[in-house]
Amino acid sequence: MRKGVAALFVVVVMAVVVHEAAAVVCNANELAVCAGPFLTGSKPSVNCCSKLKEHQPCFCQYIKNPAFKQYIESPNAGKVATACNVTIPTNC
């Protein structure tokens, strides 16, 4: 009986993880609310921080895209990420 419960638990956890991963749509245009802080280093808005947290699973994809890499790896992006308590990966 315990093996069955443990197996069910694993299936439920995996379903939640897959659902959360599937819920993120990597559309860099949604980060337009962060353009000012990324360009100037100004304090990010609550909306900017929310979008950054939502897009964390997308950061490696953005870093690999030459159109976005310069913004994600800029010193101001680091300031914004720190202010929003978001981690930008160093290895993708």
CATH level 4 superfamily: Plant lipid-transfer and hydrophobic proteins
Radius of gyration: 17 Å
- Number of discrete domains: 1
Determine the strand fraction and express it as a percent band. under 5%
Residue runs with pLDDT of under 50 for 5 or more positions: 1-21
* Shape verdict: globular
Please give the CATH architecture: Orthogonal Bundle
What is the CATH class designation?
Answer: Mainly Alpha
Please give the largest β-sheet.
none
Please give the number of β-strands. Answer: 0
Number of helices: 6
- Terminal residue distance: 41 Å
Mean pLDDT: 78
N to C succession of SSEs: HHHHHH
- Fraction of residues in helices? 55-70%
CATH topology: Hydrophobic Seed Protein
Structural class: mainly alpha
Brief synopsis:
This protein has one domain: Plant lipid-transfer and hydrophobic proteins (Hydrophobic Seed Protein).
